[in-house]
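In response to the reviewer comment on reproducibility (Comment 2.3), we provide here a single inverse folding case reported in full, input and output, so that an independent group could reproduce the run without further information from us. The structure tokens appear first.
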């Protein structure tokens, strides 16, 4: 509706990552567009500087990049892949081969701690 209470019907073109249908004048590669994945599946995509950052799909929401969860309440449960000593699922951003993983190689199955791709505990 406009300021006078009149209905405004306006459709947008689908747009793209580099040319979103709705964008900011000062940053034309940041905005919102409709991504056609297949004839029966589309995504509503938010872009930032020509990169997909948030995608609303037919089945949920996907975040591409870092998600800052300061405003999200406590999480009761989350799961991780098993990982390996070379690729632990719980790692440090500055040292991706250092962290914690599920050790399925050694019996009994347990938790492994790795530093620089070498199991330490």
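Designed residues, in position order:
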């Amino acid at each position: 509706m406009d300021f006078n209470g009149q209905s405004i019907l306006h459709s947008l073109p689908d747009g793209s990552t580099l040319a979103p249908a709705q964008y900011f004048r000062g940053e034309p590669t940041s905005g919102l567009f409709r991504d056609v994945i297949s004839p029966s599946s589309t995504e509503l995509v938010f872009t930032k500087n020509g990169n997909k950052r948030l995608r609303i799909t037919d089945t949920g929401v996907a975040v591409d990049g870092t998600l800052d969860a300061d405003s999200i309440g406590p999480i009761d449960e989350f799961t991780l892949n098993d990982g390996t000593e070379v690729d632990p699922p719980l790692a440090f951003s500055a040292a991706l081969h250092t962290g914690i993983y599920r050790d399925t190689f050694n019996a009994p199955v347990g938790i492994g701690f790795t530093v620089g791709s070498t199991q330490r505990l």
